Amino acid sequence: IALMYETRNPGLRCSMLELNDNKLLHCGAPSLPKEYCDAVHGLKNGPSVGSCGTSTYTGQRVLVENIETDPKWEKIKHLALPHGMRCCWSEPIRNSSGRVLGAFGMYFDYPALPNESQLNDLISAARLAGIVMERDQIQKHLYELAYIDPLTGLANRACFFQHIEQIIQSTAQHNRRQALIYIDLNDFKGFNDSLGHEAGDLLLKNISERLVNVCCESDYIARLGGDEFCIFLTEREENDAASVAKRCLD
Length: 250
Prior knowledge:
three-stranded antiparallel beta sheet; 45% helix
């Protein structure tokens, strides 16, 4: 989308920012410097966070003629000016129900406001980005419903067995060593019966967080259901499984 509109407008550079928990996440800016994209990625949106930060905050189009002098850019203009970015026009990216998903930004290397054709391009680019972004978010949500345990955020049983099958095939092909740790909680039913299911849910969340903390990023942790957990250790030394199991017990 960005490249298409850049081709239509020589000298134009485009970016798409996704809004996630009021933070701006770069999801497409093929012609902008990586240094700038990295600096903006993760900023919290607000009325003085450039054109896109303001646009996602207010839900309104923001047309900044001069980045160097506009107060909306005061806090972050030092990130844009060294890369020749002098003006920025931003349009909110919305889903089909009107919720703001992010912002589409257009930059030129000279101070300017858009003419009629450029403004139409800005609006249509944001609409196209909205279609793509909404579809992507729906797919992510469907994946979470199918494969993520909603209580703990760990992989669920279906995801775990799918992953295990792939790992076993890879292990057989490359002669790698793997280990599996199975865990359940003693007397969890008694805990639930005596303190209630809300307390039981809190315990399961706490246990899952501790399991994550004792494992490596490459290890695969899942909640199979109830009080059953599994940890799959990938490409570890022979004694690692016993060591991880000991830490889990502790």
